[in-house]
Every structure is written in C-alpha cells, then in structure tokens.
Specification:
Low-confidence stretches: none
Shape: globular
CATH topology: TIM Barrel
CATH class: Alpha Beta
Mean pLDDT: 98
Radius of gyration: 19 Å
Bound molecules: flavin mononucleotide
Strand content: 15-25%
Largest sheet: 8 strands, parallel, barrel
Structural class: alpha/beta
Oligomer: single chain
Order of helices and strands: EEEHEEHEEEHEHHEHEHEHEHH
Strand order of the largest sheet: 3-4-6-9-10-11-12-13
Number of helices: 10
CATH architecture: Alpha-Beta Barrel
Distance between the termini: 21 Å
CATH superfamily: Aldolase class I
Length: about 325
C-alpha cells in the first residue's frame, strides 16, 4: 500500500509517503522568503520520489514565527519564491503542501508575542500578551490571507498547524487557555478559534485541507486522544480532509518515545471520527509503514528525520518491500 496512489479531492499523490513539515531555520535574510537552501532541500526529496512534500511551518504573521529564520507567507512578496518552489517540486512529479503556522507564546522573535492567555511556556520563555478580540480577528484573517497566497503560489495541499503548543493548540488546550470569553472555558469555546480559522481558510481554498494536531498533552489535566476524536468529528464536518496526528509540546512534559509511538493516536482518531489520518513519529522502515497502512491505522505515512538523513528513503523502503520503484530518468543507471 505504501506505493499505491492516494487521492483527496482532485489531487492524487503517487504514493503514501509524505515529507513531514520540518523547520529549516534557513532564512538568512530573516525576511521569510524562500532561499536557495529551501529550493535544493525540497526538490531533492521530490527527486527522491516522495509523494507529497509538506513545506515547514510558514508564518502567517511576522510575530507568529518560531524564529526569525522561519519561512513566511504574511506578504505578497513571499509568493514568487514559493511559486518557484512549487514549480520545481511539480517538475519532479511530487505534490507539495504548505503548513500555515502561528507560534503564539512559543514565538522567539523580537517584539510583542501573543497567546490566548498570558502564561509563559516555561521560565526561560517570555510571557505573551493575552489576545484581544481584535488580535483574534486579525490572526484569523492572516491565516486566510496565507491560504490565498498559498493558492497563488501553486500549492496542492494546505496544512493548518494546530499542534506542538503553538497558537491554535494553545486555544484548544485547557492548560494554556484560561480565557473567560467565548474563546475559552468549555470544550466548544476552546475549539472556536480553530473552527474560525478553518472556516476562513475554506472561503478561499477548496483543495485538500489537513490539520496537524497534538493528540495528547501528556498532562493529567490536559487533552487526550479521546478529546481529539471529538474535535476531529467537528473538523470533518467543516470539510477538513485529513488529521495529521502528532503529540505533545503544549506544556513541558516527559514523553516516552519509541518506534511508532504516535501511531495508536492516528488509529484511534481514524476509527473514532471516521476521518483519514496521517501517522508520524519514528517511522523509519518500509515494513513499519506498510504495517500501519495495511492494518488500517492511518492513510498516509509522514516521515521526518529519516528523510533528512536519506532523501532517497522511498527507494530504500521500496527495496525493503520488494517493489521496483521507477527511477528519475537521469538516475536510471544508478538506481
Ligand atoms: C528539524 C525539525 C524541524 C521540525 N519542524 C516542524 C514544523 O515546522 N512543523 C511541524 O509540525 N513539525 C515539525 N517537526 C516535527 C516533524 O514534522 C515530525 O513530526 C517529528 O520529527 C517526528 O517524526 P520523525 O520521527 O519521522 O522525525 C520538526 C522536526 C524536526 C526534526
């Protein structure tokens, strides 16, 4: 199954291998624009036969960057570099998505940082400003503007970053959202910000829409995978196509990691909410990926660090599974 095509809306990925979004911190000019590094890095994985490449967390506002070296999509000036990138990747037969992000209280940039509540992540981080209604409206608008620019730049998929303790995740979790207005308190109220972001994005984007979530806060008072089954049902109703299931990083916590440690979350959400899921986290072999797909635990396999080590991982996985993978033409003699 790993090498079978997968279609969402009108977009077909040639296989189920997805390059997981990974920040490159490579914007030397600190202006959010695509640099040569990004062109080389992503196009290489397309040559390596990845089916879908998801570009790293790309900030919808300058203050929403994790670091000053992040990619950005807050200005029309970002479109042309991103367009060069999508063209390059398309030329190599892969599809390309972008992760739209706002770092919230985890932003490590100069100036004011914002979050649902004025609580720092830990003692080393700054205290964010509690977002006003205007901040909320402007940020939702920024996600919509980012989606429109992503469309203009030729992306096939948009992924909303609602995981890892960044802004949207901070609204969802009761550990980070202490608001007393309609954006905090109840389960429904904490979902409102993400719901409005999805709605705003859907107004300008009818292509495949993914949302990355942290399925567990790893904290006794935090969210669990069962909460995310309920949130995933709501996302499905709103037209989200796939939940990319990661976990943690909402509050400092010790996480027991081992091969495939997040796969049970992807499986629970897939069956509990009847929605497609992506599995990610320490998936490093073709057999492991095939097991996840064949046992109906996820629909797509996201590969992170293994693709940093080996841009030709799809080739490695295909050999392991005894499948002959077509070579990019110039590489036929070495494949
Ligand atoms: C260098 C690096 C940067 C990352 N940046 C992002 C990011 O921009 N967005 C995101 O959702 N996850 C990010 N992650 C998490 C990965 O997408 C992935 O979920 C995680 O590394 C686990 O998968 P793996 O074991 O296959 O690496 C990053 C991970 C690494 C190693």
């Amino acid at each position: 199954m790993l090498f079978s095509p997968y279609t969402i809306r009108d977009v077909t990925f040639k296989n189920r291998i997805v390059m997981s979004p990974m920040c490159m911190y490579a914007c030397d000019r600190e202006d959010g624009t695509v640099h040569n590094w990004h062109l080389v890095h992503y196009a290489t994985r397309a040559v390596g036969q990845v089916g879908l490449i998801i570009v790293e967390a790309t900030a919808v506002t300058p203050q929403g960057r994790i670091s000053a070296r992040d990619l950005g999509i807050w200005s029309d000036e970002h479109i042309s570099g991103l367009q060069t990138l999508t063209t390059l990747v398309h030329e190599q037969g892969a599809k390309i998505g972008i992760q739209l992000a706002h770092a919230g209280r985890k932003a490590m940039v100069e100036g004011e940082i914002i979050a649902p509540s004025p609580l720092p992540f830990d003692e080393t981080m700054r205290t964010p400003k509690e977002m006003t209604k205007t901040d909320i409206e402007e940020t939702i608008q920024a996600f919509q503007n980012g989606a429109l620019r992503a469309k203009k730049a030729g992306f096939d998929v948009i992924e909303i970053h609602a995981a890892h303790g960044y802004l949207i995740n901070e609204f969802l979790s009761p550990l980070t959202n202490k608001r007393t207005d309609e954006y905090g308190g109840t389960f429904e109220n904490r979902y409102r910000f993400l719901s409005e972001v999805i709605e705003a994005v859907k107004k300008v984007w009818d292509g495949p829409l993914f949302v990355r979530i942290s399925a567990s806060d790893y904290h006794p008072d935090g969210l669990t995978v069962n909460d995310y089954v309920e949130y995933a049902k709501r996302m499905k109703t709103q037209g989200v196509d796939l939940i990319d299931v990661s976990s943690g990083a909402v509050v400092p916590a010790k996480i027991d990691v081992y091969p495939g440690y997040q796969v049970p979350f992807a499986e629970t959400i897939r069956h509990g909410a009847d929605i497609a899921t992506g599995a990610v986290g320490l998936i490093t072999s073709g057999r492991q990926a095939e097991e996840i797909l064949r046992n109906g635990r996820a629909d797509l396999i996201f590969i992170g660090r293994e693709l940093l080590r080996n841009p030709y991982w799809p080739k490695t996985a295909s050999s392991e599974l005894g499948i002959s993978l077509e070579a990019p033409k110039p590489y036929v003699r070495g494949w």
